[in-house]
Inverse folding.
């Protein structure tokens, strides 16, 4: 186990983007949690939404006076092959779960649990990867509530993977899910639904002035913003359906021949499929000079790209929540997204974007055309988009929800 390096953060930085009452509520909750030590555990410090969330949540909790640590598991490729299979299985497909896979999982999780020496009053484990640590942690810290934050789309899990995870969830005191439907899939003693959120003051989401936008525009050359641009930002993962997005782009290009597509993705440290899928997508797009496949862009460049694009698309087949949708909406860019997972919570169809069925690439392409050919509608949708995110999907709201759950869990265990 190892702690990631984190930048210091101040809750006052959010005073211009959220209500003062919400910040005061955070301070009240922090005072209630004074003297409490909290640990977050996950499997990667880079790539993906969980790591991004923790990079904001952990330092902000400490700024508020709630002593909070974050430890990342140490594991090899064999373990991450297993946990990616578990992830895929929980999202509805995957290879058979073998005895060898279970043994690898147990060995690595138990070894990581043994490395935690400090004492904590509450432990938060994220997604399936650390669940195998719970028995040892519960033995060492029997009075500490264990909270499971599940970020996975549990709409239709494969039975054997659901059963595997359920072997560990009886040790959980409280489960936090991103949608009500997910909470009904796996038995947990107490559950809450907390929508994830974006951090509006990070490099990826902060406001950019005209000079910064111009610099980033030049960095994105040969992409031309004098012609229409559609962008998808997501990990290179089969569930994100970059191939379906390519199909939607080709449909839209029949009506908008000058259209360009940008597929941007990072590589999560715990996802062994990422590089392989990136290479497959790049090969598929290599003969079209108007398709730009990019990886590991700086956050400021992603920020600018989401602002400069005419439309953002997120045609996921499964999606725990899909914070890249809120990122684009916050920047005033309408989104064409699928009805998978938490995307419909963010897109109000016909108000700040459009929704299509996950496998409807043609429908997605037609919705892109609708927005690209109607400038006034696209502008109106963009204006609606930012306010929708401000009300529902910014970090201070999520942090209030989490701290309220922590207070309740500690009170129940006292």
């Amino acid at each position: 186990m190892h702690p990631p390096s984190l930048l210091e953060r101040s809750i006052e930085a959010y005073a211009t983007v959220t209500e003062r009452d919400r910040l005061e509520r955070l301070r009240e909750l922090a005072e209630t949690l004074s003297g409490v030590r909290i640990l977050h555990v996950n499997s990667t410090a880079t790539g993906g939404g969980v790591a991004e969330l923790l990079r904001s949540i952990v330092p902000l909790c400490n700024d508020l006076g709630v002593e909070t640590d974050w430890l990342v598991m140490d594991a090899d490729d064999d373990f991450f092959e297993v946990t990616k299979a578990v992830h895929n299985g929980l999202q509805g497909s995957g290879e058979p779960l073998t005895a060898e896979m279970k043994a690898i999982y147990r060995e690595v999780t138990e070894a990581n649990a043994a490395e935690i020496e400090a004492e904590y009053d509450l432990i938060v484990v994220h997604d399936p990867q650390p669940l195998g640590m719970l028995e040892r942690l519960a033995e060492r810290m029997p009075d500490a509530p264990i909270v499971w934050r599940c970020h996975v789309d549990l709409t239709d899990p494969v039975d054997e993977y659901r059963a595997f995870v359920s072997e560990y969830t009886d040790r959980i005191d409280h489960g936090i899910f991103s949608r009500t439907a997910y909470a009904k899939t796996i038995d947990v003693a107490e559950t809450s639904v907390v929508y994830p959120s974006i951090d509006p003051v990070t490099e990826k989401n902060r406001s950019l002035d005209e000079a910064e936008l111009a610099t980033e525009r030049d960095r994105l050359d040969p992409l031309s913003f004098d012609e229409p641009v559609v962008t998808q930002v997501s990990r290179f993962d089969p569930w994100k359906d970059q191939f379906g997005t390519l199909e939607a782009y080709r449909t839209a290009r029949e009506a908008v021949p000058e259209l360009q597509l940008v597929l941007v993705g990072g590589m999560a440290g715990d996802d062994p499929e990422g590089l392989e899928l990136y290479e497959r997508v790049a090969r598929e797009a290599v003969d079209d000079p108007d398709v730009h496949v990019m990886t590991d862009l700086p956050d400021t460049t992603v920020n600018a790209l989401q602002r400069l694009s005419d439309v953002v698309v997120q045609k996921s087949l499964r999606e725990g929540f899909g914070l890249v949708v809120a990122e684009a909406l916050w920047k005033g860019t309408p989104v064409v997204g699928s009805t998978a997972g938490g995307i419909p919570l963010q897109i109000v169809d016909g108000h700040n974007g459009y929704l299509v069925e996950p496998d409807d690439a043609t429908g997605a392409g037609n919705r892109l055309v609708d927005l690209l050919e109607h400038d006034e509608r696209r502008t109106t949708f963009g204006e609606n988009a930012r306010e929708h995110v401000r009300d529902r999907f910014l970090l201070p709201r999520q942090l209030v929800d989490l701290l309220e759950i922590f207070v309740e869990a500690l009170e129940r265990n006292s």
Q: What stands out?
A: The chain has two domains: 11-197+394-413, 210-392. The domain at 210-392 is CATH 3.40.50.2000 (Rossmann fold).
